[in-house]
Amino acid sequence: NWTHAIRERIAGEVIPVDGKCLRGSHDAGSGKQAIYIVSAWASDNRLVLGQRKVDEKSNEITAIPELLRSLDVAGCIVSIDAIGTQKAIAQQIVAQDGDYMLALKDNQPHLLEDVQSLFLWAEKIDYEALHHAYTQTVNKDHGRIETRECWTISDPVGIAMLADSAAWAELQTVVRVRARRQVDGQCTVEERFYISSIGDAGARTAAQALEATRSHWGIENRVHWILDMAFREDECRVRKDHGDENLAVLRHIALNILQQDTTTRLGVHGKRLKAAWDTRYLEKLLRFSNA
After folding, report:
1. DSSP H helical segments within the chain, as ranges?
2. N or C, which end of the chain has less CB nearby within 10 Å?
3. Residue 166 to residue 160: CA distance in whole angstroms
4. Of 202, 203, 84, nearest in space to 136 by CA
5. Taking 90 as the threshold, does the pLDDT of residue 237 lie above it?
6. Distance between CA 176 and CA 178 in Å, rounded?
7. CA Rg, the chain, in Å?
8. Using the 8-state DSSP alphabet, how is residue 269 labeled?
9. Bridge-partner residues for 180, per DSSP?
10. 89 forms bridges with which residues in the sheet?
11. pLDDT of 211 above 90
């Protein structure tokens, strides 16, 4: 309730959904496997909106719909990696008045092949008479140059040519992202493809799609990585009964509180230490969480 109360409704906010394994929660003696938690992250608000534990005999495909049902995604773009590229999940997001950005990999081989073929054909005709958009960003940092290019096709005729296109709820746009990274004279290139329900917004379509794909990595960098580095989540050996899942929820709550605090210029790890050393700071954080 606190998370939803402080969240600012931002039109078009990207909500990445992704899973993380708590590696230290396994117990070889009892045969217990490490648990897997699927979380949703509000990229603009920098808040973990919710989480669900994946059942031991299941996978993320069953946990994602449960998590989505607990969220208000209206007006937002839900981004999910390839495991969540399922027709039922796309339908659920649209039914909840959201948009989706779903990655294509080998789990949807025919659709991936069709999308790749559509972009190859579009290149040959120089996108003539197709509803399309293109954008490029270049970032330079510490000797590293990253160039990202994004092409989108929102042409109804082109979309209709895709395998089972009618079975994907409100499928309106396909996306191609090419990331080129140059480090120490070495160049690597990676291409990724997506399907999306975001509509044709003219030249802005590609910029919106590229921002959605980039924002998806926020849950890796600003949630999963911090949980491992600042909270040492993977090293936690609490695993009896529901202790591991309960602590995962508490870490998410603590992360939300610490990331919303702007009164001190410290990282999450530094804020945790300060809260342990400074009772007044700890009380301020707790008052904020109860506000």
Report:
1. 2-6, 60-69, 87-95, 109-124, 156-160, 204-216, 218-219, 225-229, 243-260, 268-277, 279-289
2. N
3. 7
4. 203
5. no
6. 7
7. 21
8. H
9. 147, 189
10. none
11. yes
